[in-house]
Every structure is written in structure tokens, then in C-alpha cells.
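REVIEWER CHECKLIST
Item 1: Sequence provided? yes
Item 2: Single chain? yes
Item 3: Sequence as submitted:
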Amino acid sequence: MTSSLTVVGLGYVGLPMALEACRVGMRVSGLDSDPSVASGLTAGLSHVDDIDSTDIAEMLTLGFNATTDPGCIGDSDVIIICVPTPLDKDRNPDLAAVKEAAITVAEHLQPGSLIVLESTTYPGTTEDMVQPLVEEKSGLTAGVDFNLVYSPERIDPGNPEWGLCNTPKIVGGLTSACTERGVQFYSQFVDTVVPTVGLREAEFAKLLENTYRHVNIALINEMAVFCHEIGIDLWASIDAAATKPFGFEAFRPGPGVGGHCIPIDPNYLSWVAKRIGYRLRFVELAQEVSERMPAYVARRAQDALNRSMKPMNGSRIVIAGVTYKANVSDQRESPAKPVTAHLKAMGANVSFIDSHVDSFTVAGEEIPRIVDIGDVAKAADVLIILQAHNEFLDSRELGHVDCILDTSGKFFGDNVDRL
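Item 4: Structure as written out by the authors:
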């Protein structure tokens, strides 16, 4: 069994991994390139929504070491790479952090170690990029001198039901022995570990999961626009269709897609497809539909104002929930930014309310913040619910707002217009 672990990258994926490994008795080091992350954790401060200060205190008691010194890799049986894989300015995969991590690991790697890549990426990354980099820099051979595995992260921030331990873990290795080593490692703290036939299959599984969601969300967003035009309550139709015990999974519309997965991952598939002269038409169409939704939300706000004989220009619009999903602080790829940009381009005075974030910036401009939910009614001609945080669901004050445009489908009343 593994006794020592280094987690490279202490974000929303790496930090929960380090916590669970500590809890089963491993000696865990967390390596991050950001000194403020390492020093903050050492001081007992968490920067991740799902990990609080009590968890960090527990980790420190169990011997957790947060550091910027890669020397810890040489003392570890297992090294897990959990670094970001964003898109560059041209919407192509940016794997600079993976490359840097692979080189760092190689420079300190000891024979007999297991390397796992968890960062979301396109099929072939582990074998075609990570493996040659590690072998060149370390002088060791993958599958012989060290084990190499890909295991896609499946963290869903803010999900109280499904976490790291009870979400099945996919493992694919360079060789069958690598896969077996990966299964043995994760089985120490994950309830169900699912081996697959290889690295590329494990890499593709992650993209397949999120592309499936991406396409279906786009479908239901298009239905939202269509149903509004012909006077159908789409939300009621979804609830009715969801009673079928087979053949249907309920997806619901929204103001656009955000976060670390759905807006990013399908682009990895499209990028690979273009390299071989192939087009993934469903993926491209889903992206097109999703990118139209913020403008559609702004137009619906304008329609709501028109019914009250008010112009958009000069009207007061309050955005409720500027994060990418409910009850988290993460603003990555949040649809709130393009929605706000469209509203401001139409002349609206936009402010926001969200207890999960201290500031919200769009195109370099700081958007005014409303702190007290009781002030929303007198500050808004239209309140747009982008994320149904608990603070909004539990509030009675919002019932006094003249007009609510609800993109979450969770609010009801004579003053509510649902997407």
C-alpha cells in the first residue's frame, strides 16, 4: 500500500485528494507553484469551497506539508498531477502547466514510483507528452521503471451528495500493471474504482461525459427560446417528461454554461478532430447555442422592461449570483460576465448581489455590489437570477422586487418571469 504521496496542484481537485489521502494514513505533501497557496494552507487557511479551515487543521495534524519545494517528489511513492488545463486566447488547449509539472516530477522521480495525471486534457496527452518528457528528463522508462496512469478528476464543487470518495474513479494505465497499481492506490480511499483498457480511453471518458452534458444543455437551451416564443412552459414539460422511468434524462435551461468543464472540455475534442481533418458538428453547434444564451437573457430583461413601459437605457438591473453555479465562489467562465456585458452595451446600470464573492469585474470595470438583500427591491427595475444561491431561495425580501427574470426555474410568483 502507498505510504507517501505528493499532489502537484492544490486547487479544487488536488486539495480534496490530499485531504482524503491524509485521512487514510498516507504521508502527504502538497506542491503548488503559488507561494500564497502553500503559506495559506500552512497557516490553516483554505482557498477551496469544499474544504474549510477545520479540514485544513485536520490535515496539518495528520502531517500534511504544503510547499513550493519539489524535493518532496523524491520522497513519494505516488505523484498525482492536478494542474489547470485552460484554453489559450485562440480557444486551443493550453497544456503549459502539465508540461511544467511533468518536467518537475521527472527531475525528482525515483524508480518504482507511480505517476498519475488527473488534469482534463485531450486523448494522447499522457502517452504523447507526459511520458516522453518524464523519460527524457529522468532517464527512466515508463511501464518498466515507473508506473504511468491517467485518472480523470470528477469533482463537482458544491455537491453535498457526491464527493471524491463515493464518486466512481476511472483508471487507465500505460500497461496492465500500471492500471493495477493505479487501482490499488485509489482503492485506499475511493469506494469504487473502475479500470479501463488504457490511457486514451480514460482521457476520452472525461471528455465524453462533459460533451454529453454540453450537447444536452444546448438542446434544452434552444428549446427554452422556442417554447417561450410559442407560449409553452418548458419547465413544466421537463418535469412531466422526467416521470418516464427510462429513455429520458432531465436537463434544464440556463443563462449559458460556466465552470471548469463544460465550456472548456468539448474544445479539446474539437481541437483533436480538426487535427485529423474531422468536424464534430454537434459539439460546434452546442457551443454556438450556448454562446447565444447571455444575449438572449439580456433581451428577455429588455422585454420585461418593455412590458412596464421602461427603456433598457438607464434602467437598473441587478444580477443575483455571479458565480458559475449555485452556492460556490468560483467565477470561472461564469455566464454572468457576458450577460452583464450585453446589458451594459444596451445602456443598463448593472449591479450585483452575491455573498460568495467580494468583487465582480467585467471588461476591467468593477461592477457595484449590493450587500444587503433587503436593498434589492428598491435598487432594481429588473432582478436577474443567474444562480439560485440558498440566500436567494430563503429570502422573503425578493418577493417585493417589481420584476424577477429567473434563469434557474426555482422562483414562482406574479413578479417572476422564468427563462
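Item 5: Key structural point noted by reviewer: Residues 240-418 form a domain with the Rossmann fold fold (CATH 3.40.50.720).
Item 6: Recommendation: ____
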